[in-house]
Fold this sequence. Notes:
Layout: H1 2-60, H2 67-102, H3 117-135, E1 140-144, E2 163-168
Antiparallel strand pairs: 1-2
Region (Disordered): 96-131
Organism: Dreissena polymorpha (Zebra mussel)
Amino acid sequence: MEYGIRLIVCNWLSSLSKFATIEIAENVLSEIFNKLSSLDQRVQYLENRKRQLLQIETVLGVNGATDVGIVKKIISMESQIRDMNQQIKELQIQKTHSNQNDHVTTPSVVTFGSPDAGTKRGIQTTHRKQRQATNTTRVAFCAGVAVLHRDHVGPHQPIVFDEIITNVGNVYSGKTGIFRVPVSGQYVLNLVYSAGVSTASPDSYLEIVSDGSY
């Protein structure tokens, strides 16, 4: 009887041990399946990431480039986008100012009546002076003396600058030494003269005569 009880207990313990082993194995398998599922998800994520990187490389035209190169390219594009946004803002500000200037009130147009006789005479005189200024002959001359040394020159004796260098307008005569003014105006004449060391009087000088007056 005692042996029978021991046998039943041993069989029960053996069955219990088998059930425990099966349960442990199922738990291990379940954990393994969970890990495999997690690994599968990670593999799927990495594959998606790889496809995204390949798409970025295709868009940026850097096939085979490293991640560092891609990042630099993206940073450069972001900088260009910021610059373009800044330019857009400036253009918008200029457009706003232009619109404000367009709304400024335009001054009224003042209409004058017909000019009186005095005004007409003034306008005619102004036009005549403008025509005279336009039609005025350009005048310029430069002349010297052919003989540098002249001895025994008496008082009021004319000295003709007979060697003409330039005579624009042909208003100076090298024979008479007379410069004829073509039109009224202001003229500048420059005369260079040296009395020499043998001059008897220190007060010797030359004069330019205008219309017979000294």
